[in-house]
């Protein structure tokens, strides 16, 4: 399982999955793309990930967001 899947499950349990949004941006040349993904819950950025693939960046952001939500 991925961190984004875990985050989605967590929000579904809290009946808040509709509050989840992703902002994705790529930069750099096509052969060396860097992805930056922000994870937003209810409009607040709770995690930001940067990686060579979109999925890896999304997982970093999701892991950060899940940590914030679970510690609240």
What does this structure look like?
By secondary structure, the chain is α+β, with helices and mostly antiparallel strands. Helix content is 40%, strand content 33%. It has two helices and three strands; from the N terminus they run H-E-E-E-H. It has a three-stranded antiparallel sheet. A hairpin with a 2-residue loop joins strand 2 and strand 3. It is elongated, with a radius of gyration of 12 Å. The protein starts with a helix and ends with a helix. 25% of the residues are buried. The mean pLDDT is 96.
What overall form do the CA principal axes indicate? elongated
Rg of Cα set = 12 Å
Assembly context of the chains: single chain
Helical residue percent? 40-55%
Judged by helices, strands and strand pairing, the structural class is alpha+beta
Approximate strand percentage? 25-35%
* Largest pleated sheet: 3 strands, antiparallel
By DSSP, the count of extended strands is 3
Q: Which helices and strands occur, and which strands form pairs?
A:
Blueprint: H1 3-13, E1 20-27, E2 34-41, E3 44-51, H2 54-71
Antiparallel strand pairs: 1-2, 2-3
Helix pairs in contact: 1-2
């Amino acid at each position: 399982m991925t961190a984004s899947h875990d985050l989605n499950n967590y929000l579904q349990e809290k009946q808040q999955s509709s509050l989840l949004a992703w902002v994705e941006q790529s930069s750099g040349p096509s052969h060396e793309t860097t992805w930056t993904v922000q994870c937003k819950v209810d409009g607040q950025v709770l995690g930001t990930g940067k990686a060579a693939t979109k999925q890896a960046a999304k997982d970093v952001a999701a892991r950060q967001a899940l940590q914030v939500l679970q510690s609240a």
